[in-house]
Model the fold of this input.
Amino acid sequence: MNAAAGPVRLRSRLAQRLDGEIAAVASMPARAAVLQVQRAILWLRHGREAEARTELNRLQQLALAHPRVELAAWLHLAEGLTAYFGAFGGGARERVRRAQVMAAAAGLASLQALCDAWLAQMAFVERDIERLVGHAAAVLAAPPDHPAACRVASALGMAWDLAQDEAAASAWYAWGRRAASADGDDAGLSALLYNQMQMRAQRIRRAALTGEPGEAPAVLLGVDSIGHFDDAVGGSARADLTPLLRAQLLTVQGDFAAAAALLEAQLPEAVAAGLARTGGSLLADLAWCWAHTGEAARARALADQAAVEVLAEDSPHCDLDERAALHARLAQVYARLHEDGLAARHAEAARAAWGDDAAQRRLWAGRLGAAGLDRPPR
Done:
């Protein structure tokens, strides 16, 4: 029954603790099954999707043969996270919410808090500040729980980064790192490191696109360190993202050939895996690179495609910073290709989008502050 457990050897204290706890309750199948779901979720978070899928399939069959609310709730969370890591959506929120509702009904406080924390993270990805605030407040009102604390800290750190309050963001990231360290959760530490670096890279890119003073792309060294950490602890759930961060920063730095090579290699799989929301601005980055490496025809064709893609960024919760970045980059591409009319059109669209982005940042800062989420608990 434990066929999937053999090949997975993670070096985190959390993984070792789960293995030990599962062995200790071998004579208690119901308890062992819940722990095995938790271990499968950890495998997912370390990028071991195939092993996790095999184990979850086995546990789904067990849950049908021996129904229990606790096991069903944990499996809903696991399936929601499978969807989240696989496509940053695809029904993830609905499955995690089902787990949260079942956990609340069954009095499973730790699982309920963990579900709320993941729902806060998903609300950030969907740019839904009201849901983010609601789920984060629920986590912080619950009894202290390291896994939930680590995840909600990531969501709130990124939220404050989006609101351009680096001090508040840093405080939440630090709080999350302490929780992950206390739990022995290397995957959580890696995710916090990546998310903080991602938001820092976005600030660098935004400054470059708006002509504002900003940090130098020497932060690339930090991006490299994420990969080294992931390798040390046994892998990452989204290893495809780190090269894309590196490509964005190389583009800002003006290393167009290296950036183009990374984008050409990574974009197809990343977009297929659910990054369509950011894919448009990355297409514009690739067009910008090609415009500098002598491939003007390809640059024009890709810019035209990206200009159509941006029309889909029209929902109330779309990534306004990505929409602005896409227009700003297209303005640069068309200007370099001597398409002055198109360049002017996208420059004007970028100005409007940056204005919308600034309004969203003010809204987020106000909502987070009003909810008392400006600093982590002591």
